[in-house]
Amino acid sequence: MNQKKQEKSKSVKPKSTIVANLDEWVEIGKIVSPQGLNGELRVYPNTDFPERFEEPGKRWLLRPGSPEPEPIELLSGRYLEGKNLYVIKIKGVSDRTTAENMRECRLFVHISDRPQLAEGEFLMIDLLGLPVFLQSSGELVGKVVDILPSGHDLLEVKLDPNFITNQESKNVLIPFVMEIVPIVDLENKRIEINPPLGLFEL
């Protein structure tokens, strides 16, 4: 079964007029509040990889209004059951006042820091922008513009103007399952699909 793992690279526009160019960075979470009195931080995750918060090491922090992320050292982290939050400890943050000042900061890793994937798993950043072709004919259908979570993830594909279809919308949602999307070729930057009858008429 094809599965995407969430980690998007994106440019972030902070509240100030300074815009950070984050094309080389992958956002993994956002600090939402302090945890206790000893400088621990609650983080809302934007990744499917728990090791981003549980394994010590270098991470990167973007403060609101800053032009670029700054390096930090993650000391420890744990998952809060039922909260969909992680609690982390960062070197140099040892009291609640300092932790309070880190609200709204975002955490990043470099785009080259790639996690281990199982067979049939893909990172969202690898799928976005890939051209989609009909496996039967090689005809270009369009390109992936988003991945939407559902029972099965859905590839949102912007249809190519030359693709003949009765689809009135310029975008179509394609279930990301092996029967419909048998080929994801990252090396050659292409996706091949076998759409079920009527997919493009929905």
Descriptive overview:
The chain is mainly beta and 202 residues long. The protein has two domains: 3-110, Beta Barrel (Elongation Factor Tu (Ef-tu), domain 3); 128-201, PRC-barrel domain (SH3 type barrels), CATH 2.30.30. Helices cover 6% and strands 41% of the residues. It has three helices and 14 strands. It has helices at 51-54, 96-100, 124-127, and strands at 3-5, 25-35, 40-45, 57-62, 70-80, 85-90, 106-110, 121-123, 131-134, 140-148, 154-159, 171-175, 183-185, 190-193. The strands form three sheets. The chain has a six-stranded antiparallel β-barrel with strand order 2-3-6-5-4-7. The chain is elongated and about 60 Å long. It starts with a strand and ends in a 9-residue tail after the last strand. Residues 8-19 have low confidence and may be disordered.
Identify the overall geometry.
Answer: elongated
Average residue-wise pLDDT: 83
Biggest sheet statistics: 6 strands, antiparallel, barrel
The CATH topology name of the largest domain reads: Elongation Factor Tu (Ef-tu), domain 3
Total strands: 14
Structural domains: how many? 2
Per CATH, the class of the largest domain reads: Mainly Beta
Core attributes:
SH3 type barrels; mainly beta; 202 residues; Elongation Factor Tu (Ef-tu), domain 3; 6-stranded mixed sheet; 2 domains; 6-stranded antiparallel barrel; 6% helix
In short:
With 202 residues, the protein is mainly beta. It is built from 3 helices and 14 strands.
Secondary-structure map:
Elements: E1 3-5, E2 25-35, E3 40-45, H1 51-54, E4 57-62, E5 70-80, E6 85-90, H2 96-100, E7 106-110, E8 121-123, H3 124-127, E9 131-134, E10 140-148, E11 154-159, E12 171-175, E13 183-185, E14 190-193
Parallel strand pairs: 1-8, 9-14
Antiparallel strand pairs: 2-3, 2-7, 3-6, 4-5, 4-7, 5-6, 9-10, 10-11, 11-12, 13-14
